Every structure is written in C-alpha cells, then in structure tokens.
Amino acid sequence: MQSLIEQILLFSTSEAMLRHFVVWLSAAAVFVLVLGGTVLTMNLLDPVRRRVGALSGDAEDSSRRTIVKVATAVGPVAAFVLPQKELERNNMMVKLTRAGFRSPMALQVFYFIKTLLMIFLPLMMLIASNWMPEVASGEILTYAMFAAGIGMLGPNIVLEKLVRKRMRALTNAFPDALDLLVVCVESGLGLSAAIQRVAEELEISHPDLSFELAMVNAEIRAGMPREQALRNLADRTGLEDIRGLVGLLVQTMRFGTGVADALRVYSEEFRDKRTQKAEEQAAKMGTKLVFPLVLFMFPIFFIVAVGPAVIRIIDAFTKI
Question: Does residue 116 share a domain with residue 42?
Fold first, then answer.
C-alpha cells in the first residue's frame, strides 16, 4: 500500500506520467464494466434459466422471479470481490439478514454493487473532467479517489440505516406482540400455536415481526428443535428485548415451569422497563432543549426585545 502511494505521488510530479496513469486506469475500468455487463447479459438471456423461471410456478410473483434471476446472474461476477475472511463474510451476512435481505445471493449482490460503484463513480469523474479544463490533473485524481471511497463506503452506510430502521420497527412492534402472546397462552394455546396466532394478527400492522414469528414456526415444522428456532429468532432480529424473551422461554421449557406465568412476569417487567425508559427520556428533555434555545430562540428574543431600543438610541445619537 505504501509503495502504491509513493508511485501515485511520483506520477503527480510528472504531468505526462499522470496522464498515462489516468488513461490506463480508465481503460481498466471500462474493461471491467464491459466484462461484467457481458456476463450479466449472458446469464440473463440464458434460455435454460428462462425456461426454469417459466416452470417455477404461478404462485411466485414476477418481481420476485426477476430479483432471483438478477441475483443468480451477478453471482459469478460478485464472487471475485467477496472478502477472503470468513468472519467478515459472516458479519456482513448477519447485517444483511437483519436488514431484511435473506436471499442466498444477497452477499454476492451487495459486494457486486460496491465494486460497481467503486469503478463507475471514479470513471464518471474522469469523464466529467473533460468539461473542466481549469482543474489540474492532480485534483482530478484526488476527486476520483474520493469518488471511489464514496462507492466503497456508501453501501455500508445505507445498509446500516436499513438495519436501524428495521430494528426500530421490530422494537415498536414487540410490546403488542408480547401482550398478544400472553393472552394467547393464558387462553390455553400452546407456545407454537400462540406464536402462529400472533404472527397472523400482526401481519398487517407489523409485517416485519410477523414474518420473523412465522419463520420460527416454519423452522419448527421443518424439524428444528424449538429452542434452536427461538435462538435463531434472537440472532436474526438482534434486539435485546427479544433475546431476553427467548432466554426466558428456553429456560421455561428446559425446567418445565408454566409458560403463561413466566410470560406474565416478563410482560410486567418489560412494561416497567418501558415506563422507566420513557421517564429517563423525559428527564433528558430539559437538558437537550438548552442548546436549541441558546442557539436559536434566545438570539431572536433579544433582537425582538432589545432591537427597537437600540434603533432609537442610534437615532438619538445621530440627531445630536
């Protein structure tokens, strides 16, 4: 990395060498774009894939089939840019899952988009430099590197925002789900039947949490142990509240205690926790209002209150 930086600095001292470097970099970017586009087009136009998609069934939505086709097509291209470390791939897959992207090709598509932006944005910057003759070559190279950094970090920032948005939606839906779960268990339903009923009731109001609960029942019906299915729910959502509920349910099933009593106690504790959190937020409100009051309200107040007096004093001194 240090040698690459030294070479770039060496090129920046020579305008001719810098020009050759930019030309070769543009040629490499165009080559990669053409290669990726060719592979993507060949995969999309593959008659075997189109035939398999046509025979996949009428129940599958057409938009979903299109997404699957695109993900399958970019898979061979994106495989070359995947991180080599298993830990990094697992962490990114967890983030994609928590953001709602559960396709097996989600990781490949994500890194394919990052690579495409890292190549496309600097290339657009280099093309736009033809209409900016007053900009020096060194500045153009700096802007191109900055655009490549945006292409590398932009998808991660968007993914983090999607994860926070979905976790916020799950957090808002959890109290309703917990109350419904308590009512269903106390009315005599088993835990699996209660989870299925809650998932059906929340399908319209809170679709994200409804899908997660339905996934738990699907895993249990597929033969997965109930404890493992509940732990998968906690891992997919990443919420401490759901993780605490899962721990309580696992402990209850392991020791054979009553699920209804445990859920009732947890619901009361969770309600007290929410009340304390609301009181904490209300107590912080006064401190948080100090800064906007000092920066925005007080200057306007002083201008309105003291402004006319200052104007009169200035008029009085000008008449003397």
Answer: yes
Using an 8 Å Cβ cutoff, are 9 and 142 in contact?
no
Report which of 237, 108, 240, 106 is spatially closest to residue 163, judged by C-alpha positions. 237
For residues 6 and 155, state if they share a domain. yes
With beta carbons less than 8 A apart as the criterion, state whether 102 and 68 touch: no
- Closest to 69 (Cα-Cα) out of 88, 92, 45, 102: 45
Burial 170-198 (b: 16+ CB within 10 A, else e): beebbeebbebbbbbbeeebebeebbbbb
Q: 232 and 152, same structural domain?
A: no
Instruction: For residues 111 and 84, give the distance between their C-alpha atoms in angstroms, rounded to a whole number.
Output: 12
Q: pTM of the full predicted structure?
A: 0.66
Is the residue at 318 inside a domain? no
List the domain range (segments joined by +) for residue 268. Answer: 169-273
What tens digit of pLDDT does each residue of 208-227 get? 888 988 988 888 888 888 88
Cβ proximity of 77 and 119 under 8 Å: no
Helices (H), the chain: 2-13, 15-44, 47-54, 62-78, 86-99, 106-128, 137-186, 191-201, 207-221, 226-237, 240-255, 259-292, 298-319
Residue 140 structure tokens: 């153009």
Residues 38 and 124 in one domain: yes
Q: What is the pLDDT of residues 141-151, one digit of tens each?
A: 888 888 888 88
Per the listing, tokens 């509240």 go with 241
